[in-house]
Amino acid sequence: MPLEPTINAALSDLFEKNGHETVEPPVLQPADVFLDLAGEDIRRRLFLTTGEDGRDICLRPDFTIPVSRLYLQRGKAGRAAKYSYNGLIFRQRPGHSGEIPQAGAEILGMTEREQADAQILILAQEAAKAAGQKEATIRIGDEAVFTALLEALGLPIVWRRRLRDLFGERERLDKAIARMAGDGRRSDENMGFLAALEGADPDAAVTVVEDLLSIAGISTVGGRTAHEISERFLEQAALASGVGVSQGAADTLTRFLNISGPADQAVEKLSEFALSEKLNLSVPLERFERRIDLLRAGGIEPKNLSYAADFGRRLDYYTGFVFELHNPHDSGGQPVIGGGRYDLLVRLLGAEKDVPAVGFSMWLDRMNEKG
Amino acid sequence: MSDDLIIAIPSKGRLQEKTHNFFARAGLTVERPGGNRNYQGRLKGVSSVAIAFLSASEITRELAAGSVHVGVTGVDLVQENISEPTEKTHLIAPLGFGHADVVVALPKAWIDVSTMADLGDVASDFRAKHGRRLRVATKYVTLTRSFFAAHGISDYRIVESSGATEGAPAAGSAELIVDITSTGATLSANNLKIPEDGIILNSQAHLVASLTAPWGQKALDSIEQILDRVAAEAKAHAVREVRSDLPISSLQQEEIASTFAATRPFGGDGGIIHCPVDNAPALASWLRQNGAATVSISALSYIFETENPLFQPLADKLAV
Q1: CA-CA distance, A25 to B133, in Å (whole number)?
Q2: Which residues does chain B have within 8 Å of residue A166's beta carbon, measured at their own beta carbons?
Q3: Is the ipTM of this complex over 0.85?
Q4: What percent of chain B has pLDDT over 90?
């Protein structure tokens, strides 16, 4: 669908009025950055080529990463900046054009996070209207509440990380939670040995296994040290013998992930959950509530926001608030706008500290279809 | 000539030899005038067939592009090198050679890893501990990506490797590999093991049809003839003909069908029975117990039937 020039003009007016500087990051980007940040899965969607120095180069597959790189190149990390963009991204899509028009806005370095979150969602909604999507249903989520819950439950660090890694993909997350609680326990040939070590001082047990590996002439294998292998081997032992994570913690996680509803009720539901589970989630919940209040003040009715506790983005630089705008006439379809908070990205790109960042991208080719 | 059926077969090595044997069993001789330097040949016995001698990777490419109608190649190469393989190709039949598995293999010393789920944990731990992703050396980039995605593993990077992949972990250029193995001996010699659920694909050589090629009536007729003979040979290969002087009643007919999976293709009350190879001796005993004086068992060369189980599915797919 060719975009009318008036839509581009309306968007650029809107972004300018809100203080977002228009940027044009390079089309050619180092492929490594995207593969490192988004994982191998993205490789098949990249348009790849090789530079004269032999390095892999790709056509930009999104704007958030190139805009963040631009932010870092232009000055000190941590400074406040508001950007907007409008151009093509390039992704291999069988049967479809690889050129996809996108526009969007980012707020970097603004430390009042909830304020920035609310600002960006309000801007996203106005941008949707400017692009012809008069009505949109809005989904929101907040990974920060999930992260805080993992901590409050006192889960082992490794499991906190693994579950966080899977947040946003409910099915896989459920499987991992079941595995953490000892589902599908193995009874393999190692079990006898593991049982013998059960209850031993953890450090001493790691040393025993490490010694055994070193007797076998193994120090570092395939990049993992004998110590690492021993540690995880014994963690398996703990899981197998059922002294790992309790079924109770797994059930609590599932109850949390099942919470959903309009955002005005979500605040209550989440508080009730924390109270009945006797967990201290006050910090993330206060922030959640403050964000909702700011949205209401900005003209977005919380009852029109649909919240789900398990809604998130699998990319691990997304850390908190996420949202999607959908065409109400195309329920279950892909979002017309996707956005969220990615506080870890700028540091992963080379900054020395985390830089608060939130933004959104509009799929201009999906706007107002059947709407 | 231009609407001839074009069959691509491997241009050298054991695969070529076995492909020739496969066609020979069906009474079809691959002719390569001028020997190994000639990259075009004919199939003696069937008219309007051109043979193209190509390398294994060329065969998958030409199948996808539709410049050959049929090719002999491994399923691993079809899955790896053709995007949307089920849209573009149709597996006509396995050929019984070129067996190999595409597997995940990792250091034996990783005693804490015995399943793909374990590997997923390690991948996530590894990134947190070492600040970089686990590296997988392979030439099967597509297969690796979809298999790892199916197991929910995303914390890894692929290092493309074209030869001696199994040496990568020892050399330090990758932590684990995805590679092809037929016996596992090479993996074992390199101190690598396969996780319980780490087999990505059981591959063997197949007769593969291109669904993107221009299939004219002439090409269809030729492939039907060829598959007719291949199917007739395969069917004959699997059964024995058991003859005796015992008239078979309808009751007995049911009994031999259920006990020996045997059929009487020519009907009547006479004693010509077709029976799966393994059941033939037992059937002979049964016939004698029931009064047969003499029983003979012989191998068959071809069994032609009305239905062609190899051609029909291809015709159906091409008709869509």
Answers
A1: 27
A2: 152
A3: no
A4: 43
